[in-house]
Design a protein that fits this description.
The protein has one domain. Helix content is 67%, strand content 0%. Helix 1 runs antiparallel to helix 4. The longest helix has 28 residues.
């Protein structure tokens, strides 16, 4: 494994760990999930993965959803005495959708790397030179 491949793999795995740790508390954990999603997208971009567009879209959705969540929290949240309907939570929907897309993208990315590595390790003998 070359240096570039190793570092992009480290980015993806560290990003995955950050996204899973941040999911323990989605509000405060969003400050860990957003950079984790960014690391995953950066790792996919640098490795020229076929999933880089999916992971960049996921990062954008997470960023929009996290931003909306903090704005909504700044205005007092929803329901109860806040005066805001619970329907306002729909503006936060890109956050979990992007998080799920990132998780799916990470696992597909790691699988893609494993398949590429397996294809590189398989050597084909020229016809007539078996054994």
């Amino acid at each position: 494994m070359h240096g570039r491949e190793r570092w992009t793999r480290v980015l993806v795995i560290v990003g995955l760990i950050a996204m899973l740790i941040g999911a323990i508390d989605p509000l405060e954990g969003s400050l860990v999930i957003l950079p984790g999603s960014g690391m995953v997208a950066l790792g996919a971009l640098l490795s020229r993965s076929r999933l880089r567009k999916l992971l960049c879209w996921a990062l954008g959705l997470v960023a929009i959803g996290v931003g909306a969540m903090f704005v909504l929290s700044g205005f007092g949240g929803t329901g109860g005495s806040s005066g805001h309907s619970n329907w306002w939570l729909l503006v936060v929907l890109p956050y979990p959708v992007g998080w799920i897309m990132s998780l799916i993208g990470v696992f597909l990315n790691l699988r893609e790397r494993r398949v590429k590595r397996a294809e590189k390790s398989v050597t084909v003998s020229p016809p007539g030179e078996e054994g």
